[in-house]
Amino acid sequence: MFETTVEVIIICIKVGVAGMVLFSLPIPLTWVERKVAGHIQVRLGPFRVGPHGILQPVADMVKMLLKEDVIPTKADKWLFMLAPIMTMVPAFAVFVAIPVGDKFTLPFIGKDITLYMSDMNVAVVYILAVSGLSIYGIIFGGWASNSKYAVMGGLRSAAQMISYEVAMSFAAVGVVMLSNSLSLVEIVKSQSGGLFHWNFLYLPVGPVWFMIFFIAGLAEVNRIPFDLPEDEGSLAAGYHVEYSGMRFAFFMLAEYIAMVTISVLAVIFFLGGWDDPTGVIPLPPILWFVGKVAAFIYLFMWIRFTLPRYRYDQLMTIGWKILIPVSLVCVLVTGLMRI
Amino acid sequence: MRDSRIETVKVKSLESGVRWILKRTFFVDFIKGLMVTLGYNLSKGVTLRYPDEEKWIPYRRFRGVHTLNRDLDGRELCVACELCVKACPTRCITVVPMEDSTGKGISDRVAGVWKVDLVRCLFCGYCEDACPTTAVRLGRGYERACFDLSSAVLDKEKLLLPEEVPPDLDGGVIVAASFERTGAGMKVNADFTKLKGDWLKMQG
Amino acid sequence: MEKVFFLIFAAVAVGSALAVVTLKNPVHSALALIACLLQVASVFVLLRSPFLAVVQVFIYVGAVMVLFLFVVMVLDIRQARMEAFPQKERWFVYAIVPVITVELLTVILGKGFPRLGPGSTEATTVEVLGKALFTEYLFPFEVVSVLLLAAMVGAIIMVKKRWD
Prior knowledge:
The complex is a heterotrimer.
Chain A: H1 2-24, H2 26-40, H3 56-66, H4 77-93, E1 103-105, E2 112-114, H5 123-133, H6 135-144, H7 148-179, H8 184-190, H9 205-220, H10 232-235, H11 245-270, H12 285-304, H13 312-338
Antiparallel strand pairs in A: 1-2
Chain B: H1 14-25, H2 28-42, E1 54-57, E2 66-68, H3 83-87, E3 93-99, E4 109-117, H4 126-130, E5 136-138, E6 153-154, H5 156-160, E7 173-181, E8 186-198, H6 199-202
Antiparallel strand pairs in B: 1-7, 2-5, 3-4, 4-6, 7-8
Chain C: H1 2-22, H2 26-46, H3 50-74, H4 77-82, H5 91-110, H6 126-134, H7 138-159
Helix pairs in contact in C: 1-2, 2-3
């Protein structure tokens, strides 16, 4: 009985910590994104609130909280209010299955604490399934706004998600074939032992799987160059054009968390998770993990301010005519290599 | 039926075809683009942090707020001939001559009133050209934002004061500055001794 | 404990399934269907087959329902709303419902399902499932694949415009 109570308490603490981290993560990320944008465009980015504008997200948050929450008269009121939450819940729920490290021993007590909430034996499928659910917020939000731009955004998002979910799942299949497991902890363990054991460098298919996953991931989280659902140029702001105040902030929050999720997954699937690439640098594994994820997030922002947006037919061409055939060939090659 | 949206490539030779495929397989153009933006990301920004930290000092040829000048003995150069009033296309200058034998001016005719309405002034510099005694000159002041329009009319007392920018300082440089906001108004305090660099060079 | 959860999930599933057919707005119906499918997935978790649960969410909720919504959203929902729900000309539908109910009840109460013991946890791991699918049930598996392929080809042919 006592053991169970302790376990329950530990789980509660983990959920609390993860929730807090995830809720507060977009705050620094918006600042970093704007700074990266500024510097790439030879500007300074936010500079006036706090040193180097570091308090800008706080100011933005206060602004969002104080803004009027507008609900269009002809909107489907309940669905409109529900949609931001529907995007946010799956974004958070994914992190139940995501490990950030193996385990560490608490000082003084000597109890092992695992750095994941649950090591599911179907974690890969779970993550793909649940992260795909956040699309409903976008679709319902777009539809409930009763605005043509928003509906167009929702429709585009649905079509895009259907197309790229296939390629993304194939990439996950590739990883599962390389690592022989559906559990994320096992996938990371199978890559331990330095740079050349990483799935990314499992030549010749590793880099191909990585690129498929990365491109599909970009499309899944609606980042530039695949941000057609919120295409400012032709759809005003797409699915969230009618949203304001905190509900809009929820959409942004979900988008940033989705970006973090894809970065974390890319690190776990291909870059060895918390594995030290050299094997000699005595850094704690969690730092390696956070460092790799941060590098990925920077890459996402870097790409955002480098590439223009694809046209809709180009998006579909990339998904159906390039990524899926390539991944089918890759499944075959990987299968032959793993026999 | 040909799908015209799909890019068709005319392969001229085997070599160029292979190169075309390799270029796409290894994301060559994509990486080139990323390198360009990375270069910009690491380069220094060109933003001038005016008015918080820096301020640009105009060249001597700049046509800013008017100044009334004195000769080397400290006498007012203006003889209130009113040529500037005649030359002014927007009629923003008001001059009322006055007789004065105390030696305040270079002749016994001085300006009793010399006002310029900066809201109407278009800084064309005709008054400068018309002035026979080089009394009126367009200076280097340009910070004229104000809360009420009455402070946009400058009279003789203010115009006769020496300019804020030291006359021996060449223009086109950036100096340290700070921004001050008080109940009376806003002010940019520039420190003309701290040069931060040449404007043209900073533009690359 | 498990029974309580099962009752909750089952109640919500039945409730949302009823909502699917009674709600007037097709988008609301779709939302109810999503809720229903999620509840079924939770029932799978209670049955100790997490893989099936996750696949249920992945395929039905994640993919099929998105396509449903895609179609529903381009419909003119005002017209759909106009139609009264208990459509009188489809009385035979209501006649079928009690028949099916009676049939199901006889099956459930009469014979019952083979009981799986609590020790069947291993029987549902992905490995066992995959092996069973590709050895014991290979023939049905392939038949289903051919069926799906035929459906796909049929759909493409139906959508395809005539050759010029």
